[in-house]
Amino acid sequence: MEVVWKRRWGSLVWLSIMVQFYLFSHCAMKYSVRNIRSKITGAKSSHGVKLIVEMNNGIVKVILSRPYGNVRGITYQGVENLLDSSLDRDDRGYWDCSWEDVNGKNGKQTKILGGEFQVITQKNNQVEVSFKTTWKRSDPLPALNVDKRYVMLSGSSGFYAYAIYERFKGWPGIFLWETRIVFKLSHWFQYLAISDNRQRLMPTSADRARGQSLAYPEAVMLKNPSNSKFKGEVDDKYQYSSETKDDSLHGWISLIQGIGFWIISPSHEFRTAGPLKQDLTCHVGPTCLSMFMSKHYTGVPLNVTFENGEPWKKVFGPVFIHLNSVSNRTKAISLWDDAKQQMRKEVRSWPYSFPQSPDFLKSDQRGSVIGRLSVKDQYLKVGNGPARFAHVGLAAPGDVGSWEFQTKGYQFWTQADERGIFFIKAVLPGIYNLYSWVPGVMGNYMYESSVTVTPGTNIKLPRLVFKPPRDGPTLWEIGIPDRSAAEFYVPPNETKYINKLYLKQDTFRQYGLWERYTEIYPKKDLVFTVGTSDYAKDWFFAHVLRRLRNGKLQATTWKIVFDLSKVDRAGMYKLRLVLAAAHLAEVEVRVNRSESRRPYFTTGLIGRDDAIARHGIHGVLRSFTANLPGYLFVEGSNSIFLDQPRNEDIFQGVMYDYIRLEGPPQRRYQSLGRRHKRGTQP
User: Fold this and answer.
1) For 273, left (φ over 0), alpha (ψ -120 to 50), or beta?
2) Kind and range of the H or E element at 130?
3) Residues 622, 301: contact at Cβ < 8 Å?
4) CB-based contacts of 347, cutoff 8 Å, min separation 6
5) pLDDT tens-digit readout, 185-225
6) Distance (Å, rounded) from C-alpha 358 to C-alpha 367?
7) What is the pLDDT of residue 682?
């Protein structure tokens, strides 16, 4: 390894850091690769001269601004810059955050700009560079130190990015809403790919600019697009959100150049709020994002709140920015399958061995946890036994289900097999609770003992048993306890406000579905009859408001009709209300008298999930139990009324995950069988 310094007084100063890389072909021939170097230009800045850092392994060349650490250019396959060269050089690839101080002042979105550049390592097969910003009390910036790192390996078609965020004792408190990496790509990239079945040609920023704004700025109807096939479609970045567990790969393909640009997340341990957290991936620009934290689909509860004096440190990433190409451009869409292979390779390599920061722990510095979970519900005959395909994770100690609101630490999740056996690997040392939920089973599980992971340990837990919330036999139920409203009726939206990608799949992602409720129920609200109605056809996926002809919004009351052959007037019945999402809403429960002035139960004002507006099928799970005295019921026909009275904004409402009425506890009962769409009754 050779370091050569050159200095010349005048308008141009050069600094070269020479690192020799070698690549090996399948026939073991040795090729010399161009140097990774740092170059200083004479462009003036407030600090004198602006600098650039160039990383080049012969496959990919990356230009970084110095000391800011923004990505100004990416050269690949003869294309000078895959990023949008029409933008300011420091607005093409960057890290940023959204924040405000604890007094609610100085809140804004801020680029994270490095102030100090350092070459961390120069090896035959690797270079790692650092761009570090150090907070000063005089700065109008969030009280954070951020060390941004970029890594390039020999033979690698791409580069890695990660960062260490840190706060020290005595620093002022802040609210951190969001932090991410943003890449704004060249207009050549027209084809978006998020998953096997979520891929499409996309409109352009100019198309959006000529479009019609809808209920909020992100949603635009395309009126005069450059591609006439897009005319009349709605474009909204939230239509391309994904759950964390499903977002290991997303990106863009240039059909013109035959090039793919991808962000690969080999692990989700550094993301907030667990595997079901939904967030942005890509959107018109073309823009490609790596989201590390945000309050999307969750609202204020997922603001990261640092109190005055609170220290903190966390490593975000590494993520891999992967580039691929195809010689036959007619087969450019196949780059998705090639990128999936690379993603699997990156996942198998986690935790990476090459990051140089001591804060990123390698495989031998981590531990693992293995166990087996089963379900035991005394009132069910079918459904007990192994917790088949349960989601099991380790997160900071807290209450049952608290993992969904955790933002500061790491989480480690896996999915059990059909026998309920799970293996959580590559866990950072620390003290955790073990959390779980089981598809089709109501409630959250938490192991009663904490789990302490130390380096190199493989912890085997005792047999775990999940006893779901239950006080009595099921009298009837609506829906499936799967933390989502996807099983309910989502109306087709084939003529207005369409996105053609979602005509036959994920139809809940269509814009404007909240208006369809008024079309289907123009005067009278939803009535669901247990034993007759089918929740897949007769239960609207979101309990929303009705828009009247004068434009005013009307609260809505849904009615559940059911028969009881016997009533225990001295007993206590339980109505389980599990909500998949809520936005500035309230659910009031009344029994047999809809006109009752006071409800027997209310959730109170809950939620800022924005799942209705942002085309989500869930937000944050919330569970409630309404205790209903037996004297409220009668033998024969009964009704439960669910009223959502908040009507200030069209997006106020809830999505139900699951509703169940339990009878009073019984010593002797008849076990119930499988769940049916029409509900169950005694």
Assistant:
1) left
2) strand 126-133
3) no
4) 248, 266, 267
5) 999 999 999 999 999 999 999 999 999 999 999 999 999 99
6) 17
7) 41
